[in-house]
Write a structure and sequence with these properties.
With 277 residues, this protein is mainly alpha-helical. It has one domain: Up-down Bundle (Glycerol uptake facilitator protein), CATH 1.20.1080. 68% of the residues lie in helices and 0% in strands. It has twelve helices and no strands. Helix 1 packs antiparallel against helix 3, helix 1 runs parallel beside helix 6 and helix 5 packs antiparallel against helix 6. The longest helix is centred in the middle third of the chain and has 31 residues. It starts with 19 loop residues before the first helix and ends with a helix. The relative contact order is 0.19.
């Protein structure tokens, strides 16, 4: 059942050829996330940081990092621009919604390209501003790498958290009662996963996020884990959701479907229905 917050094209939001505005928002959003991750990781993990000196417990520091990045995700999702693009900021999320039939092919290409470009740009900006602090081994460009249990454990963990995240997003966004809380639920998942799962895989969930750090660090160790596991986990969650609810159970590809905000995904579905008529 579609949430009551649905809206297709609001006043002043005429369709734009190529939807470049949404693509740029996706790039800027992941770039901002990477800048935030870089800054908070330096604050919490660099040996010269007074916060690091005050908080000796690694779990406590991870908990603070989780809260910081969860709140960053929530802020981006509910921002004016996040509400316009749908706030995917993650190729695995966009590809999953494409497989669900909610994203047009041209938008799939535009979103994924923008997400990879935005993540890389965010890390380039962070490196330019925070150079030697970001390069310190304790921070290491906020790279995501398998923990002591190895790549297979990291693959399993990344698949599991991706399954949970997409399952939570689909359950919340397609509920009348909880649709407007989808962003909060997603941010809470990010926070919880950083606290608990990060020692196993580094907690990525996002191929573009991992690649951006790997490029900055010039180290692509086990990158196959982060290009496969998040996507497989999210696709599995989508398959489970549609098995339980049916294909019509998925309303839209936006994480926050605010009223009176243009939605390129609703426009795509309307065009598909019109073409089938």
């Amino acid at each position: 059942m579609a949430p009551t917050t649905s809206s297709s094209t609001g006043p002043g939001f005429a369709p734009v050829a190529g939807n470049w505005r949404e693509y740029l928002i996706e790039a800027a959003g992941l770039g901002a996330f990477m800048i935030s991750a870089s800054g908070f990781c330096i604050l919490l993990e660099h040996p010269s940081s007074p916060v690091r000196a005050m908080i000796g417990d690694p779990f406590a520091r991870r908990a603070l990092m989780g809260v910081a990045m969860g709140l960053t995700a929530v802020a981006l999702i509910y921002s004016r621009w996040g509400r316009l693009s749908g706030a995917h900021f993650n190729p695995a999320v966009t590809i999953t919604f494409y497989r669900l039939g909610k994203v047009a092919r041209r938008d799939l290409a535009g979103y994924v390209a923008a997400q990879f470009a935005g993540g890389a740009a965010g890390m380039a900006i962070s490196s330019a501003l925070l150079g030697r602090w970001l390069a310190h081994p304790a921070v290491d460009y906020v790279t995501t790498r398998p923990g002591p249990a190895g790549p297979l454990a990291a693959f399993a963990a990344e698949s599991a958290i991706a399954f949970v995240l997409m399952g939570v997003v689909l359950l919340a966004s397609n509920s009348r009662r909880y649709a407007r809380l989808t962003g909060v639920c997603a941010g809470a998942c990010v926070a919880l996963f950083i606290m608990i799962e990060a020692p196993i895989s580094g907690m990525s969930l996002n191929p573009a996020r991992t690649l951006s750090s790997a490029l900055a660090a010039r180290d692509a160790s086990a990158i196959w884990v982060y290009f496969t596991a998040p996507l497989l986990g999210m696709l599995a969650a989508a398959r489970a959701f549609t098995f339980a609810r049916g294909p019509s159970g998925v309303f839209c590809a936006k994480l926050d479907h605010a009223p009176r905000v243009r939605c390129i995904f609703c426009e795509h579905q309307a065009a598909m229905r019109g073409g089938a008529a």
